[in-house]
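Section 3.1 - Work completed
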Amino acid sequence: MSAVKDAKRVVVKVGTSTLTYENGRLNLRRVESLCRVLSDLKNSGREIVLVTSGAIGVGAGHLGLKERPRDIGGKQAAAAVGQCELMYIYDKRFGEYGHITAQVLLTRDVVEDPVRKGNVVNTLTRLLEYGTVPIINENDTVAVDEIEFGDNDTLSAMVAELIGADALVLLTDIDGLFDADPHVHADAHRIPVVHEIDDSIRALAGGAGSKRGTGGMVTKLNAAQIAMEAGIPAVIMNGAQPFRLYDLFDGRPRGTLFEPARSTNNEGKAE
C-alpha cells in the first residue's frame, strides 16, 4: 500500500449503504466516525476531498417514504431534502474538529464542458488552498438522464483526475474485490492488488448495489479504471469501520488496491 501511504491529496468516496441504515436514516455513529478520521488525516497534513452519496436515500428516509423514489421528480425532491440534512451533519461534525466544509454540486455536462470544467478545477484548487474540506455530490435536484453521472463512484474518479489527486479511496459495504461473491461463497478470497482491469476482473463484479444506492462493484471498477488511467492508485475497502483508514495510510493492507502500471505527477509527467 506504499502507493497510498504517501498520498497528500486524497479523494474519499462514501456510498449510501455506508452512510445509512436500511430504513434510509443516517447512521450518525458511522458518519461521526468518518468525519473524525478524515479530520485527523487532514490534521496530519493531507488534503481531503469527500465525495458523498446519500442525498436521495436520506431524503426518502427523512420524508418517511417506504422506499427510494423511482421517478425523476421524486428522486429530485428527495435529494433536495436529503442534501440539506447531509450538509448540516457534515458541517457540524467537521466543525467540531476545527475544519471548514464547502459544498460543491456537479453534473456531467459541467465537467465535460471545457470552460465550466476549468471553473470547477479553479474552485476546488482554491478551496484546498484555503484549507477547507470540499464535499462533493451530484446535483441530483437538477440532473436528468442525459446529464447524470449515474453513480458517485464515477464522479469521484473524475474529481480525482480533475484535481490531480494522489489517491482515490472508495468506501463501500464490502471488504474489496473478491474472486467470488462473499455473500454467497464462504470460501471467497479477497484480491489484494489489481494491476490491470481486464475481462477476467470485470467478470468478478457481480450485480448492482444495495436498494438504497445506485452503485455496485461494476461502477467501482469503472471508477478504479478511470483513476488508474490517470496514474492515480485507487482502493476499494469497507467503510463500516472508518478507523481502518488509519491502517490504509499507515501502509497496512486494506481492501483491494488498484495500482497503475506507472504513476503521473500533477503536471502529467510520468514518474
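Second construct:
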Amino acid sequence: MIQTDMEMDTEKTIVAIELASSKVSGVAGQRQPDGSMKVLAYASVPSQSCIRYGAVYNLDRTANAIANVITRLDAMLSTKIERVYIGYNARTLRSMSCQVERAFDEDTVISQQIIDDMFSECDMEEREGYLSLLLESQEYVVDGRHMPETDPMGVACRRISGNYMKVLLGQQVAEYMAQCFGMASVQILDGFVSAVAQADVILSDEDRQQGCALVDYGADTTTVSVYRGGMLRFLRVIPLGSSLITRDLVQILKIDEDQAESLKCRYGLYNLKQENDPEAQILVGDRSFKLSEIGDIIGARNEEIVRNIMARIKDSGYEDVLFAGLVLTGGGSRLQGLQQVLTKLMPKMRVPRFVTQPDGFTWVEPSWNSNDGSQMGLLSVLTKGCENCCDMPLPKMDDIERLTSENQDKVSMGSLFTFDGESAQEERDRQEQERIQAARAEAEAQTAASADSQEKQENEKPQGGKKRKNSFMSFLKGIVEKGEEFLDE
C-alpha cells in the first residue's frame, strides 16, 4: 500500500526548542491528516540564570538546560530526539531596509537573471557585528514611477530599484546560541525568527495587507513587528517586559518573587477596574498593602512598556496606516486591564486583538495547554518543521497519553556533566572532547544534507520578483566549517 505525503507526515515527530529569558522550552508534535498539529509533549526549565534579553550569557548553564529539556521530552515520548528546529528572538534582533539599483543604456526587459542578481547583491551586503538571517524582497520602482511593483518581470525599462527587508541578529548572540546546542549534542535542522513564525500562524492575509502591528509582550523583551501591503516592514525588540513589573513589586513592597508574580497575575491594572475600592487592602504574608498601591506600581511600569511599543510603531513610519490595528500575544499580554490602557494611549488604533493560543492545534494532555500566550513563539516554530527529529519510532498513542503534566516533573533530569563533579576535570575534559568530535562529525553530515535540501527547495520555488531567503542554515554551516577552533574557544 502506497502512503501519501500527508500520511507520511503523521509519522514524523517534529521537535522545536526556544531559548527565552524566562525558560528554555521544548515541544514535540505530529502533523495530522487534516493539517492540524498534535502536541505530544512539552517540557521547560528556568533560564533566568543563563539567558538575558533573549541572549545567552552563560553557555554551560544554557547547554545544560537544553540537555535537560531534551531528556524530559525523550522520557515522555519513550524515544530519542537527535535533531530540533529552533526559534530565536533577542535584544539585538532588528530589521533593516536596503536598496539595490540597476541602470541600462537602452530599454531592457527585466529578466529573472536581473532579479536574482539584485537579490544576491543585497544578500552579500554586511553590517558589522550582525548576521543577516532573513532577507525578503519588497517592491521594485521602475523608471521612477510612483506606483511600485512587487513583480516587474517582463517590464521594459532603463532603471530599476529594488527594495529589500533584512532581519539581523547580533553575531555573538547567534554564535553563542549555536555553540550551546553543539555542547548539548543536539543537531539543529533549521532556525527561524520567532516573531516572523508567529506572524505566519497568527496573522491573516487581510491583516498583513491592511497593516497591523504584531506585539509579543514577553518576560524580558517585547517584540514589535509591523506589516503593511502584505509584507514585514519593521521589526524591533524592546529590552523591557513583564518581568520588570514583578521586580518592581519585589523591590518596592519588599516581598519575594513568587508573591510579586502572584499579585501581578491576580490584580493586574487594578486601578482601572470600575469596582475599584481605593481603600481595599490585601494581606501578603504578615504585611498588609493597599490594592491601589499595587495597581500604581504595575500601572507605571506597564505604561512605560506600552509607550515604548508606541514609539517603535511610530519609528516604522506606518503608524497612520495600520488599519488592522494591534495584535497582542506573549505572557505579558494576559495582564488584566491591558486593553483599556492600549485603547486609551492609542485612541486612533483599532481595538487590539489578543491571541494566546494558535489555531489548528490539538493536545494529548489538555493541562499542557496553559493558554497564556507565553508559548506562541515555540508553537509557531513547531509548525515550520518538516523533517523527523527522532531516530526511534514512538510508542502507541495511549502510552503517551498516560503521561500527564503533573508527573512529567518526576522524569529524571539530564545533565551535561559527569556525576563526579567539578573535581574530575580531566575526565570531564576527555569526555567533552570525545563528545565534541562525535557531534561534529554528525553535525557536518546532517548540516550538509539540510543545506542541500534547503537549496533544492529554493530552486523549486516559483520564479519571479518575489524572493525570500532564510540564511540560518548557511550561518550554521559556517560555524561547523570553523571546526574545533570555534567549539573549543
